[in-house]
Amino acid sequence: MSEDVWLVVGLGNPGPTYANHRHNVGYLVTDELADRMGSSFRAHKSGRADVVEGRLAAPGVPGPRVVLARPRCYMNESGGPVKALATFYKVSPERIIAIHDELDIAFNTLRVKLGGGDNGHNGLRSMRSSMGTGDFYRVRAGIGRPPGRQEVADFVLSNYSTAEKKDLPFQVFDAADAVESLINDGLEKTQQRFNS
Q1: Domain residues for 124?
Q2: Catalytically annotated residue among 21, 23, 44, 100
Q3: How many domains does the chain have?
Q4: pLDDT 10s digit of each residue in the chain, 196 long?
Q5: Binding site members
Q6: Which residues contact 119 (CB under 8 A, 6 or more apart)?
Q7: What is the CATH number of the domain that holds 53?
Q8: What's the CA gap between 154 and 171, in Å, rounded?
């Protein structure tokens, strides 16, 4: 396994229909990271994901290699493409970071952790199933619980509210910072900074 490559996966659903849904915050964060790397996504040769390859580090500092990835499938099928990329780039699970929406965390709040269950999240469930482990990092972007009696599936597959849209860029920026921090500073420092 490669010790110098990180695989950063933004979980979401492909296509313009889903682009602004709460379930797609992982895609938004990888877009921000791609901007920071000065690159844009391109199709991986597997045909199952779009990727950006480069480095995430301060200017003049040689940071580790990073592969940003967005599976080209629906959320509940994410595991196959992630497993294929991990195999292709020789990345072990503990060098994988999944960025995803989290119902049990308030909107505009982040939590970073290593391992754990899937908590009903179809993308995480698919990754755990395909890779045979849940021992990968997660950057969990809070979206909160649906209001009233709205079904969870309808809530995650809906656009952010007008008020949330104003704060969303800040959450995306912070989540991208958390990814960079995980890669460059490790879990403990990242949790101290972002899990407050």
Answers
A1: 5-194
A2: 23
A3: 1
A4: 556 899 999 999 999 999 999 999 999 999 999 999 999 999 998 888 999 999 887 667 777 899 999 999 999 999 999 999 999 999 999 999 999 999 999 999 999 999 998 888 989 999 999 999 999 999 999 999 998 898 999 999 999 999 999 999 999 999 999 999 999 999 999 999 999 6
A5: 18, 74, 76, 122
A6: 102, 103, 104
A7: 3.40.50.1470
A8: 22
